Amino acid sequence: MLSLLVGLLLLVLLLLAVPLHLGFRVHREHALEGYLRVRWGFGLLRFEQPISDSGDDVTEAPVPRKPQHSRQRDDTGQFLRALRSAPFRQRLLRLLGDLWRAIDKRGLRLYLRIGLDDPADTGQLWALLGPLSGLLYAQHEAELCIEPEFLQACLEFDAEGELRLIPLQLIAILVTAWFSPSLRHGLRPSRI
Question: What is the pLDDT of residues 142-171, one digit of tens each?
Fold first, then answer.
């Protein structure tokens, strides 16, 4: 019985060690169109999924919004409080960097043009996206261009690339981060 469990565990680990290739091309100017291509097992399993939006602006009856549960607001507030902690922020940034480096990126390109109804709101959004755009532009693994549109509300993007990842490696990074004291301490619910 034990040898069967060990054998199954080794089989699962072996399957998770096989690289997964994701290729994508997504474009949205008026309607969303593109594809997602998945390849696993050195080409043994492969499929392509088209991505499309009909572009029809059919107005539906508005769905009444349910009030947010206090649990969701508490979780968001806890996460925002944790972001104020320097060790938590540093560990979270290190986790994101480790995940970014673990993924082999080829031909990764993103062009994004975004604007809101109010130019002031667009400016506030750009205050968040501008520095992020600069940081990601400095990465030589991807071509990134984010442009604000102050004259009209719009969301246009064009993205393509190929990603190669090893699921076992990503799981190892996430498990290691989970056991990090600074990350766990930041996510621990506060007792008031």
Answer: 788 888 888 888 889 999 999 999 999 999
Q: At what angle do helices 86-102 and 70-83 cross, to 10 degrees?
A: 90
CA 46 to the chain's CA centroid:
22
Q: Three-state SS for 55? A: coil
> What's the predicted TM-score (pTM) here?
0.67
**How many residues are given for the chain?**
192
Give every strand in the sheet of 104-115, ordered side by side: 45-52, 32-40, 20-28, 154-165, 104-115, 142-148
Q: What is the pLDDT of residue 191?
A: 44
State the amino acid at position 21 in one-letter form: H
The pair of three-digit structure tokens given for residue 94, joined into one six-digit string: 């290190």
Residue type, position 23, single letter: G
CA distances from 84 to 72, 79, 95, 96 (A): 19, 9, 17, 17
Sign of the C-alpha dihedral, residues 139, 49, 52, 118?
Answer: negative
Whether the CB-CB separation of 167 and 173 falls below 8 Å is answered with no
Give buried/exposed letters for 33-44 (b at 16+ CB in 10 A, else e): ebeeeebbeeee
